[in-house]
Design brief:
Blueprint lengths: L4 H13 L11 E3 L7 E2 L9 E11 L11 H18 L3 E11 L5 H17 L3 E9 L5 E11 L14 E5 L4 H11 L11 H4 L5 H9 L5 E4 L4 H12 L2 E5 L7 E2 L4 E2 L2 H6 L6 E5 L8 E2 L2 E10 L4 E4 L6 E2 L6 H4 L1
Parallel strand pairs: 4-5, 9-15
Antiparallel strand pairs: 1-2, 3-6, 4-6, 7-12, 7-14, 8-12, 9-14, 10-11, 13-14, 15-16
Helix pairs in contact: 2-3, 2-6
Bound molecules: magnesium ion.
Amino acid sequence: VPLPEKSLIARIRRMAASSNPGRPRNSSVLAGIGDDCAVLRLTGTPRNPRDTLVTTDFSLENVHFRRDWHSPESVGHRCLARGLSDIAAMGGDPVAAFLSLAVPRDLPQLWINRFLGSLIDLARKHSVTLCGGDTAESPAGILADIAVVGTVPQGKALMRSGARPGDRIYVSGQLGGSAAAIEELMTKPRRKPKPQDYLRHFFPEPRIELGRILREKGLASAMIDTSDGLSTDLAHLCEESGVGAEVQAEAIPRAAVGKPRREVDLELALHGGEDYELLFTAPRGKSVPSRIAGVPITQIGTITRGRKILLRSQTRARQELKPQGWEHFRH
Ligand SMILES: [Mg+2]
């Protein structure tokens, strides 16, 4: 049974405030949990003015996670990782998180403790302070809504709309690994995949450092994170930029999952979501390293003038790549 609201908030406050040697509390946070509002100073200094980034994400039981599939640690980690990944996709620095949590009356308090512990661990790792939120009883299922606030130097946020014909298209890490875990869970319900064999699904690492470096070095012209799947996220980027794209099937880096490790099918790499990698474009002349902040970077195609997204392959005729998105696989 969950703690009454007052003691639950007191516990969250204790957990959020507990010290963590070597990782100072974010200096933009003037006051966190404990007053009517958190107080943040996000504008930077006159010499270093900054813009504010805000993103919110739902994590809903039986939509984004299942209690029989995902440990509370995985749910807490993924809940915050989704928001951090959006900040990364703008080239931003995350500052503060706000968590609104509604739980059913019969949920064990231990579940909440493990969920919060994991969420706060990830927050600390990125010097993000949990600065507030709300709690309530849910009539059915766990509902977690996270807001993440960050900053970026004024005018420097990396938008989806900056891609131009001729730009090269790059993706970080590998694709399809998260969807492969869902596929395992659905097709072999008795043999649960081990989190360590499907880390990108159960504990995705948001690409904060990579996003920051791409922004600092001025490498990327447009960027988005791969939350819905390459075909859908590339379509978003192209739509916002008013361009098309050509992608080379063999170039797409496919995740290696399971034990023994096997490469996922092209279909999963093209359409499977929730990998939280960064998909970005860079002008033709820019030299983009093959590894940044320890993360492999792969060129997968080129931005074109037409509005279509085409998939080229050595073995098949060129075809249009339609956004099939993640929902298609989820159901
Ligand atoms: Mg996003």
